[in-house]
Write the structure tokens for this entry.
Amino acid sequence: MSEEMRKPEAAKTIRETDEFARTEADRLIRGSRHAALSVLEPMTGHPIVSRTLVATDGVGRPIILVSALSSHTKALLADARAGLLFGEPGKGDPLAHPRISLKCRAEHITRDSAERPALRRRFLTRHPKAELYIDFPDFSFFRLLPLSASLNGGFGKAYELSGDDLDIASPAASALADMEEGAIAHMNADHSDAIDLYAAHLAGEKDSGWRICGIDPAGFEIQRGDQLRRIRFPKSLGDAGDLRKALAELAKSARAND
């Protein structure tokens, strides 16, 4: 069969991008502690893949912390094209579990960048053990800007997403980033019971001891040891001042089901 004859048939396997696809993409990307990173080897142009820890910036774009000594850092500095694969295999067939593959453009965040302190804080909140090496002189951050993505949400659930589908666009982003550290500290210190309710009723987790480790206009992450879960707000925040109300309403909803 010719390539031209195959194309219409292949198109039938891709579903129209909908809210399920965007929500699942959000969960997979922003609810992951690590990903497979693909870069292009400078000398040969051949793809090379490694595992990397990931966090996100204030609007949910992936960030990685890498050493200048690593081959993938050299590759990203030579060619900003990169790929990220998110998604954990579970029981049974690993191909039956959701995953998403991103095409990205890497943006190097230098050590003297004004953005580095905020990215450092967000990365350490999710990966506290990285404090052992995060300030080594050869380590720096890259932001991976999503250009498009292929989502496999399970059997018969294939989607193609654009950069706009993956973006968290909100006028609240800047103000929320400024207040995030204090809001997280307050919730973890004074409302740990509410966070455990989020875990139980919004993430399906039975154990207690969860902590918030990141907030953006579309949702937040909770963490317990090596476990990380993404919880979305019912509606993306349009104003940073809506954060308290949104968290309280989620707690109220969770208590109603307790």
About this structure: The radius of gyration is 19 Å. The chain has eight helices and twelve strands. Residues 173-190 form the longest helix (18 residues). The helical segments are 3-12, 19-30, 71-78, 116-126, 163-166, 173-190, 192-202, 243-256.
